[in-house]
């Protein structure tokens, strides 16, 4: 490829990925792709240069389309599939092991779609078997198409599964038991992980060493990731340009020293040091598992070596465009990885602010260059993170100003030198002890910053204006020909926007209700101007994961939390609330076994906050012999003419006991027991006549909630039906004299016409 076509090649690759996304959304068939391919071949024969660009775009297009067609067919969802698979990754989590598998062969049920389209799956094994990367197993899996919870402003797990090339998720069946077909072959990375496990280091040091040097970031715990996210330092942990660049630079320095000793008269003209550095770059990225960040860093570092070598090398901008083209050709799904755009954006800005400037001289010069680069990068990266993730770490610029040199100059070098000198008795350990001390200081810095400057999630209307102001701040201070007045104005705008937003914000009227998507469980947030209430806490899965952990950053405050009853799908998130948030008062039925001191919910209790009326309709006061489901706290909330009714898991018999106390019609009903046939009896449905009904149920749940009979009852009343399994999280307002409107996270076609 000639250098003059670097930008057109990158644009062609970008266009191919975007067209693939659009064609999938528009439902374009594979026949149309065939005709486009024929046209491309004709153009190649007619005008080879333009044809090559077109073929590059088609390559990316085909790679993206291949991922869409490799998803598990819906006809195999919930079915047992026998597979022979190779373990790519195994991570222990509580009493479970999370496996990443490459499917070598599979056999699904007869009269079902073929399972041969799936190649990579992520499953959970509740088994005593030990799994190691590289092993081959025969096992039976129960799979479902890739999916995730859909809640506003949270991590999009389903999108992550797609861009990681994972075609199905599920769990390992115990009957028949899995059979190991072949042991793991020799793997340098796995040997390194095993070697680390045997060292006399604390657990935090081991997992950070594995993440920083071997690219095994799955060793990090949820607490580690929460701390990194809250301080804007996640980029320092994954194998990225920082780590690959350090290894490459170190090898290049040693190779140049060797060239100077062997050929002192013309060592500057030797090309082999650059080749040795390139081999070290590729080797280290391979050792780190060639994950997308490591692969992207490898490509960019190799092109950086080419640019710096000065031998028929491209300009920095040509190298930048060429890196984009190569990354997309190797990994078409990188187009949807936020990390790719953050890294390329950072490199582009560094090229802009340093192009035409003299190289720094001396220690003082390099220190000032590092400080200047970090300060000029901070607002740009903050704007990008704000747009991509809807949050910002206020202290990130100051933290990174210290953390970047600390990690790059102390932690990573001591970690890598520890590996290099590990065969030497005591010396390797001494370096890792230095790493451990540096890690403790780094961890303390992050913890203190989170306590004083917690992660900030601005309101949606403020997100894009603030991102634009931050984006404007970077060129104002980074470009030389900007008037000082513009720089001060941009800085004042960034400072004033959050203050103006908070001061001009009108007091919240009425009640905002959010029925969160937590799978097969229930979690409802009710929030007014000065009051915040949770009804239920969602489930806790067998592997220990609690969906509540993904909804808010740590340190939230709740005035009251009502736990309708102690079943896991309603009370599973209690431990997460206790660990990371503040709850003023807990409320639960008398007699429930929960790890909290709670006040009992009782029939007839009422209270009012911010003009919103709350009333318990069930259970009766005192001890009772009811089942846990039937003593659920039943809550009625009213604002003006609007009413919300939440019935927990009570049965049809209990519904009849408080039926006459319900003021009808009901604006929104959260259907009892997730839409089970044991709740939502005919009398109850007819009396309440709900305008809207929400089923808080999981996608493809084994109970088939909501059941057909219950759905028909509500449809006979002409209720508008919603389900968190299909619509994601639901949000609506209860406000006097305001029309009732429901907003969904997953809008469904035709929904507005039916409701």
Automatic annotation (TrEMBL):
Kindly give the membrane topology term recorded for this protein: Multi-pass membrane protein
**Keyword field contains Cell membrane:** yes
Q: List UniProt keywords, sorted A-Z.
A: Cell membrane, Membrane, Transmembrane, Transmembrane helix
Question: Does the record carry Nuclease as a key word?
Answer: no
Which residue ranges does the record assign to the Metallo-beta-lactamase domain?
520-699
Q: Which GO terms describe its cellular component?
A: plasma membrane
Cite a single Pfam family from the UniProt record.
Competence
Per the record, the major location class is membrane
Q: Name one GO biological process term.
A: establishment of competence for transformation
Places the protein is found: Cell membrane
Q: Give the transmembrane region(s).
A: 35-62, 236-259, 271-290, 334-354, 375-393, 399-421, 430-450, 462-479
Query: What is this protein identified as?
Result: DNA internalization-related competence protein ComEC/Rec2
Organism, scientific name: Vreelandella maris
């Amino acid at each position: 490829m000639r250098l003059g076509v670097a930008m057109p090649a990158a644009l062609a690759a970008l266009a191919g990925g975007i067209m693939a996304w659009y064609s999938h959304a528009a439902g374009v068939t594979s026949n149309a792709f065939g005709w486009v391919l024929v046209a491309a071949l004709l153009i190649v024969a007619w005008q080879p240069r333009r044809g090559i660009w077109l073929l590059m775009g088609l390559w990316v297009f085909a790679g993206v389309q291949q991922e869409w067609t490799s998803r598990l067919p819906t006809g195999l969802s919930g079915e047992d599939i026998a597979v022979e698979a190779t373990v790519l990754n195994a991570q222990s989590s509580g009493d479970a092991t999370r496996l990443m598998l490459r499917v070598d062969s599979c056999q699904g049920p007869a009269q079902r779609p073929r399972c041969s389209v799936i190649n990579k799956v992520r499953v959970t094994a509740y088994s005593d078997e030990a799994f190691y990367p590289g092993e081959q197993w025969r096992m039976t899996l129960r799979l479902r198409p890739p999916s995730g919870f859909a809640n506003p402003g949270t991590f999009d797990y389903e999108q992550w599964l797609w861009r990681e090339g994972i075609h199905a998720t599920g769990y390992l069946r115990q009957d028949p038991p899995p059979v190991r077909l072949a042991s793991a072959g020799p793997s340098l990375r796995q040997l390194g992980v095993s070697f680390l496990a045997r060292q006399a280091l604390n657990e935090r040091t081991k997992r950070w060493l594995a993440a920083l040097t071997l690219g095994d970031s799955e060793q990090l715990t949820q607490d580690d990731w929460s701390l990194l996210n809250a301080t804007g330092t996640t980029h320092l942990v994954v194998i990225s340009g920082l780590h690959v660049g350090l290894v490459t630079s170190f090898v290049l320095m040693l190779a140049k020293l060797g060239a100077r000793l062997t050929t002192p008269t013309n060592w500057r003209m030797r090309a082999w040091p650059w080749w040795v550095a390139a081999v070290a770059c590729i080797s280290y990225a391979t050792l780190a598992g060639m994950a997308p960040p490591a692969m992207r860093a490898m490509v960019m570092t190799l092109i950086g070596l080419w640019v710096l070598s000065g031998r028929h090398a491209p300009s920095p901008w040509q190298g930048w465009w060429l890196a984009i083209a190569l990354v997309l050709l190797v990994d078409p799904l990188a187009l949807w990885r936020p990390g790719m755009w953050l890294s390329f954006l950072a490199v582009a800005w560094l090229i802009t602010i340093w192009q035409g400037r003299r190289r720094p001289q001396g220690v003082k010069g390099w220190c000032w260059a590092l400080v200047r680069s970090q300060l000029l990068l901070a607002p740009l990266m903050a704007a990008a993170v704000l747009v991509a993730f809807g949050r910002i770490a206020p202290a990130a610029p100051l933290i990174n100003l210290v953390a970047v040199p600390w990690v790059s100059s102390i932690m990573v070098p001591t970690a890598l030198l520890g590996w290099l000198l590990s065969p030497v008795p005591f010396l390797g350990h001494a370096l890792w002890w230095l790493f451990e001390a540096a890690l403790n200081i780094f961890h303390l810095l992050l913890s203190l910053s989170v306590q004083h400057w917690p992660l900030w999630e601005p309101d949606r209307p403020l997100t894009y204006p603030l991102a634009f102001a931050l984006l404007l701040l970077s060129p104002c201070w980074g470009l030389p020909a900007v008037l000082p007045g513009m720089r001060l104005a941009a800085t004042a705008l960034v400072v004033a926007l959050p203050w103006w937003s908070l001061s001009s914000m009108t007091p919240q009227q009425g009640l905002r209700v959010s029925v969160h998507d937590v799978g097969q469980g229930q979690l409802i947030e009710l929030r007014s101007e000065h009051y915040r209430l949770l009804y239920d806490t969602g489930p806790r899965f067998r592997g220990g994961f609690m969906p509540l952990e993904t909804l808010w950053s740590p340190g939230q405050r709740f005035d009251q939390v009502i736990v309708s009853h102690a079943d896991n799908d309603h009370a599973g998130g209690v431990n997460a609330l206790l660990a990371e948030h503040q709850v003023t008062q807990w409320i639960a039925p008398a007699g429930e076994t929960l790890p909290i001191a709670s006040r009992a919910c009782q029939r007839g209790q009422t209270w009012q906050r911010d003009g919103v009326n709350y009333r318990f309709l069930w259970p009766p006061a005192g001890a009772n012999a009811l089942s846990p489901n039937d003593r659920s706290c039943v809550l009625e909330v009213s604002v003006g003419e609007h009413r919300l009714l939440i019935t927990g898991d009570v049965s049809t018999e209990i519904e009849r006991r408080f039926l006459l106390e319900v003021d009808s019609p009901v604006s929104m009903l959260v259907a009892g027991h997730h839409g089970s046939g044991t709740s939502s009896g005919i009398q109850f449905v007819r009396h309440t006549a709900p305008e809207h009904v929400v089923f808080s149920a999981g996608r493809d749940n084994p109970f088939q909630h909501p059941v057909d009979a219950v759905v028909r009852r509500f449809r006979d009343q002409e209720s508008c039906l919603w389900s968190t399994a299909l619509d994601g999280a639901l949000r609506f307002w209860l406000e006097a004299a305001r029309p009732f409107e429901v907003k969904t996270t997953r809008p469904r076609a035709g929904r507005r016409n039916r409701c």
